[in-house]
C-alpha cells in the first residue's frame, strides 16, 4: 500500500509539474496546500502546525520532484508532539519523497540536554520518522504526527547559527 501511495504521489507531482507553464522553475510559485504537500511526499500532515499565516512553495528540481517551502507564522509558534517544538516566524526547507532537508527555523527542546536545538531534516524510514538535529538524531513513530495541532505563540528564540553570528557587528575598542 505504501508503494502504491508513493507511485501515486510521484504521478501527481509529475502531472502537476507537466501542467505548470514552464517559466524559470526557481521562480515558479505553486498554489498547493501545505499539509497536502506533506502527504503527497509521504509525510504525516501534522508535521507543520496551524495557524500558518502564509506560505510559498516552489519547484527546486523536477527529478526527483523536490519543492522549496517557506512557511510564515504570525508569531513564534510553540507546539508539543513528544517534547516541545518551536517554529520561527519564517520556517524554510526542501521536501522530496520521504525526505525533508535544509530546514531552518525549527527547534526542539531536546530531553537529553533541555536545550533548544536546531532540526535540519526529517527522513521517513518505514513507519518511523528520523529527525536530524544539530547534535543528535532521533526516531519516532510517524503516528505521533498525524494530527494537525494548533500552536501557541511565544517568545522568539535567537538564532545561534554560525552564519548569523558571523554577521554581527564586531566592536572595535
Ligand atoms: C485548532 O483551532 C481551530 C480554530 O480555533 C479549531 O477549529 C480546531 O479544532 C483546533 N484543532 C485542534 C487539533 O485543536
TrEMBL record:
Q: What protein name does the entry list? A: Uncharacterized protein
Q: Does the keyword Signal apply?
A: yes
Lineage, top ranks: Eukaryota, Viridiplantae, Streptophyta, Embryophyta, Tracheophyta
For whether the record's keyword set contains Transmembrane helix, the answer is no
InterPro entries in the record, alphabetically?
A: At5g01610-like, DUF538
Where is the signal peptide, in residue numbers?
1-25
- Name the keywords, alphabetized: Signal
Amino acid at each position: 500500500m505504501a508503494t502504491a501511495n508513493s507511485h501515486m504521489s510521484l504521478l501527481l507531482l509529475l502531472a502537476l509539474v507537466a501542467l505548470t507553464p514552464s517559466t524559470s522553475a526557481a521562480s515558479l510559485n505553486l498554489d498547493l496546500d501545505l499539509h497536502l504537500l506533506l502527504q503527497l511526499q509521504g509525510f504525516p500532515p501534522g508535521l507543520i502546525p496551524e495557524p500558518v499565516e502564509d506560505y510559498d512553495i516552489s519547484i527546486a528540481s523536477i527529478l526527483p520532484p523536490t519543492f522549496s517551502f517557506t512557511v510564515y507564522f504570525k508569531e513564534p509558534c510553540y507546539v508539543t508532539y513528544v517534547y516541545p517544538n518551536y517554529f520561527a516566524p519564517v520556517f524554510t526547507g526542501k521536501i522530496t519523497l520521504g525526505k525533508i532537508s535544509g530546514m531552518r527555523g525549527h527547534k526542539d527542546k531536546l530531553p537529553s540536554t533541555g536545550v533548544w536545538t536546531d532540526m535540519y531534516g526529517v527522513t521517513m524510514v518505514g513507519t518511523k520518522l528520523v529527525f536530524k538535529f544539530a547534535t543528535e538524531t532521533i526516531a519516532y513513530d510517524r503516528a505521533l504526527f498525524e494530527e494537525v495541532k494548533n500552536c501557541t505563540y511565544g517568545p522568539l528564540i535567537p538564532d545561534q547559527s554560525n552564519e548569523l553570528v558571523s554577521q554581527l557587528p564586531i566592536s572595535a575598542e
